[in-house]
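User: Working on a comparison across species. This one is prolyl oligopeptidase from Blastococcus deserti. Can you predict its structure so I can line it up against the others?
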Amino acid sequence: MRYPEAPRLDLVETLHGHRIADPYRWLEDDADPRTQEWSQAQDALAEELLSGLPMRPAFAARLEQLVHAGAVGVPAWRGGRAFSTRRDPGQEHAVLRVREADGAVRVLVDPTALDPAGTTTLDAWSPSWEGDRLAYQLSTGGDEESRLYVLDVATGEVLDGPIDRCRYSPVAWLPGGGELFYVRRLAPDQVPAGEEQFHRRVWRHRVGAPADTDELVHGEGSDPTTYFGVHTSRDGRWLVVSGAAGTAPRDDVWIADLAGDGELRELQVGVDAQTTAWVARDGRLWLVSDRDTPRRRLAVADPADPATWVPEAWQDVVPQLPDAVLSDVALVDGPEGSLQVLAVHAVDATDRLSVWAGDGSGRLADVKGLGAGSISGVSSTPEGGSSAWVGYTDYATPPSVLRWDAASPTSLAGWEQADVAGEVPELTVVETHATSADGTPVHLFVLSGTGRPDTPRPAVLYGYGGFNVSLTPAYSAQALAWVGAGGVWAVANLRGGSEHGEEWHRAGMRERKQNVFDDFAAAAEHLVAEGWTTHAQLGVMGGSNGGLLVGATLTQRPELAAAVVCSAPLLDMVRYELFGLGRTWNDEYGTAEDPTELGWLLGYSPYHAVREGTAYPAVLFTTFESDTRVHPLHGRKLAAALQHATTSEAPIVLRRETSVGHGARAVSRTVGLAADQLAFLAQHTGLAPR
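Assistant: Here's the predicted structure for prolyl oligopeptidase from Blastococcus deserti:
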């Protein structure tokens, strides 16, 4: 391969006694003419290599069908109206709709109608308690810089907005729809240079009033990286505020009686645990917490009596289970009006539903009929009722909604099914376990057309392993297209995720991050040992934190796989905190400002682990120029380093996109990216057209 020229700087810094080379520091600067020229040359190389891949047209055609499968969101019920999202085949983005009490359905927000170019996304939305007003947030060009609006549900008239600086802002309405609580960053001129992405505050806003007249509620003196949550009770009496520094697995929680003095009082502060709290229609304070219960429990307390706020005084409704992780709950009315809880638990990354008595007397029923799938959420009517709505997906089922009713507590009925575009290939899911380096079992889902390792075939291993994210089964056009072409697709449930609760998460973060990479390598070795594939037929794939995962894998074990797809990755772990939202992740990874933690980071940082004279596998980096979470510099720097160091003829390719960011994107952009990724993997694992 003849790669674009990338000058190597003789730049070595000494940090806490470590001499750290950084020859491609100049690639961090988007505005540097050298970076722009080099990036354009990489664009030309990527276009030449990817457009000529033999299986790209077939994958693009298949993905065009599979990606355009529909998706239905779990409804939020307010005032007899159901608000939900739906995307039908052919639509670039989901629309937000309202279903009236008479069954009539209207579209309230259509991102494509607002922006035919498809670069505007709907980031979040929240209806008022009465269902007559809707707060929603939009961003454009992939920057995720949400702008908040309020509209009249009956007329569609925009009543307020845009209010800027509302990225990651929850909304909590007060009764009547005239006021709401929300989260907004301080103006850039009120914060230190370079910290414009931080410094959030909780505000009370009157609809239609200028945002600069909002009442400051909370946040002064907090850590600049703090994310806040807000929740109000339906009667408007109680306000709950939570705050967590960055993505730390702990939060502080305060509660205020708005009918009293309105002062926020400490419910949980300075505790190494996460607790979600809200006051429900029965007047009790409900708490989902991993405090001393890493697999989480559901308990209740009295919001008016601080003596009941300590965990020792909580009354369990759904206790911690020994083999399952509590992820979601909905309150419903039983057949005789007694309060019940519909609870979602995950067992080995597969979600289960069960029904519990609201008075804490125990489990009432297990809900049948769900396969190896995921429950995306459960909802019920806040004023009470015997029904609940359950979001469901699995590897072959697009996100759809089922209905549960207390009259038939062990079964589910259809509510709204997403359409499938094209024919879903025959698919069998096998669950198996690898053994990691320290003896820890690692669960895998293996997808194939036969359900057995009858002959080794090209395989893709996907993983994430971080930030308490659980990889439960979900509809995947990429997986279906790969399996339909004759390959094997595997998903590994690595430490660092939430598949087995908070202890599983912490076993893969900070000084224990190497466990994640060991788990992934063990999963790959297991697929080979069981006969599913060979090292020469194996590709590995991951994005974001999963990009770090495969970046560490290819630099630690270059012989493990034949091909690597590394998307929107973190790769320079010495300087990751200086860009994007990196500063919010130092509780997950550690910080280079601390001598000990710098040692952890250098122990696996992919950019610093590249060794000249090594035969690296084929690597495709995919980066997004508008990514405000993970800066594209990471992909640039490791691509340049590998292109310089490798002795292999396998290509190192950098594919970048503009006007798209880390998160949501138009469906057509998804097809193009996925087709390139799968065709690249096919080329270098030997997957041939049928």
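For your comparison, note: Residues 99 and 105 are 4 Å apart (CA to CA).

User: Helpful, thanks.
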